[in-house]
Design goal:
The chain is an alpha/beta fold. 26% of the residues lie in helices and 25% in strands. It contains 5 helices and 7 strands, in the order E-H-H-E-E-E-H-H-E-H-E-E. Helix 3 packs parallel to helix 5.
């Protein structure tokens, strides 16, 4: 219905994780909604590319940069290796190969390093260290961890960015209105001391 509704936390029960194949099928079929949910609506899907082991090839239409989407499970380090291999394969395509694959890729620059987007596994310290190293060499990696909850007969998928670690949410110190002071607000500063004449 294209409507977001926040469920009550007490109604949500953790459910078993989706298999890689099931998650892959869901993301491929509903990429437009998934991309919007993670804040990347400008990345448009091209399709799976079997020869490069790319679960989904996409294109950042604003930046003109190819995105390699890898759906993984288990250790994030393993999925990062798959993403790197797939990105290297796509980077080797020439302009003719890119254009013949899909019209969206006609604007891509041959030889550019594709962006890597990994969906599924959590990024532990080893995976983050590897991604940090690759990022220093102009390789863009973003990872999202997927959890599944159940509400009655419905299964809900929660997607959280796991790499790079998102910034912490800002703390809300107080809400102040014009009629009364908030109990959580900081106390007013003390009045300035009266001047004292030097003896």
């Amino acid at each position: 219905s294209k409507t977001l509704v926040a469920p009550e936390a007490s109604e949500l029960v953790p459910d078993e994780a989706l298999s890689r194949d099931e998650l892959h099928a869901l993301i491929t079929a509903g990429w437009e909604a998934f991309a919007a949910e993670i804040g990347l609506p400008r990345i448009k899907a091209v399709g799976p590319i079997a020869e490069a082991d790319v679960d989904l090839l996409a294109m950042d239409v604003d930046a003109g940069r190819i995105t390699v989407v890898i759906v993984g499970e288990g250790a994030g380090k393993s999925s990062t290796g798959r993403a790197l291999s797939a990105a290297a394969h796509i980077a080797a395509w020439d302009a003719d190969k890119l254009g013949a694959t899909h019209e969206l890729l006609q604007g891509a620059t041959p030889g550019d390093s594709p962006r890597m987007l990994i969906v599924g596994p959590k990024f532990d310290e080893d995976a983050a260290r590897l991604a940090d190293y690759l990022s220093k060499h102009d390789m863009n990696i973003t990872a999202y961890h997927v959890e599944v909850m159940r509400k009655g007969g419905d299964r809900l998928m929660t997607v959280k960015q796991s790499y790079p670690a998102p910034p912490p949410a800002p703390d809300i110190v107080a809400t102040v209105d014009s009629k009364k002071k908030s109990k959580n607000s900081a106390p007013p500063p003390p009045p300035p001391a009266e001047p004292v004449e030097a003896a």
